[in-house]
Amino acid sequence: MNTPANDHLKTFLSQFDLESLGEGDLEAGINTLVSILCSAGNIAARDSGVVDSQHSVRDVSTNIVVSGSLSATLVEDQLLSPLSGLQENVNAHASSFEETRYQAITGQALFPDLVEEETEDNISQRNFTQLMRGNSTLSGFEQGMWSRVSKDAPPPSANSFLRNCFVFLRSSRTTQIRKLLPFSHLGQPFLGLTFHSSQQFTDWLPILKLVMEGEQLITPSPMLLKGQALITDPQTSFSQSLNKHRFYAAKYLWLLDGTQAMELPKAPSDAVVSSPPIKVNQLNALISEVFASRLCRIDDSTLRYPCDFTQAQHHWIRFLRSHEGQAPGVTSASKKLLGSLLFGIQALNAQRARSPLIKFDGVLELSKHLVRRAVSARLSAAASELSGKQQLLQARLVRQLNKGPSTERDLYRAAGIRSSICRELLDELQAKNLVEKSGSIWKLVSGQTAPSPQLEVVSPDHEDAAPAKSAI
To answer: Using 50, 70 and 90 to split pLDDT, how confident is the model at 28?
Structure first.
């Protein structure tokens, strides 16, 4: 069924090459696109954002979990790996620069066997040297130089790490990240992590809480450490973390693989979309440029884009609050999603001076689609947990009845079950012909064992509030 809202969504998505982004899978393509657009806001300097009609700068940072083998793999390949490459190149350039400076001061080399003379052919290394010496005075040229430095690796002799310029941190070890956090660029790290079990979320929770909530670091130059994290979850184990650590896990925007194949969207026949659609390499260029801007001088690193989305944001908050009863914390996790997507689109448009600009129509509907899927998954996780608990309690009753017939009062006392739910559990077992009652005595039906109940999951979709007039 086509509605104006669906048409807006299809028009928006048609501006991107989702087939390439998701390797033929629509939901995986959407998850990859959203991860990249939102990560632009996470990489940008702390005071970056979108400026609304009241001239307020909206924060565009978002913590994200990407679940499912396909989406997680694509986000790692198309976002986290390129980011790691940019960071490693900057670190290596800086290390080489530090080696050269040390040798100039002392006349000795830190690593005598590894030092090589700077050559005119090594343009990116000469750019880095000029940046460190303050020889670049024009911000436009400086951003271009940082862009070259972050894209090109230095000579192989640079083999140590810079300890002051970590924009992006990626490691499988908590101890390594703990050591690197104090050396985050301007105290604003962006973590890229991969979890294969719910236990890993438990192990990393102290670091994730520190980064999410912020902490004043006691260092020679005290600073506030506060950043964001993007977690890939190929085994979809995050659902268990939602049950074990509901308060903090609920603060993450949850993107999931689709449960069934979906047809790639086609824009309405009267829609005007950019042609050709945005491809993976253009989105990679977006991340590279925002990364380069972040490393510029403080007064040139902040990215702010005007966008009057106040009305759409108000509608967005009403939509989120309507789902709060089903998924507590969803408003906190997704409040900034709309602004984050708009920031990423505006940053992408800033690179398209000679190309058709990306239209915002449908961003609000895309945000709703993502939240509906996350709410549905959270309800499934809660139902699975409840089912498991019910099965355990029913198994207790069956074990007691295996010892012989019993009254309800004796059963809930012996099984350690609250009296208020014992009768409900017994009624469910009776409905499945597993137990029977004679007078006030309960007993097992001959040959029966504990059940494995399956609960139905209620869909979260329902009528939303009246749509906002804005087409965002």
So the answer is: very high
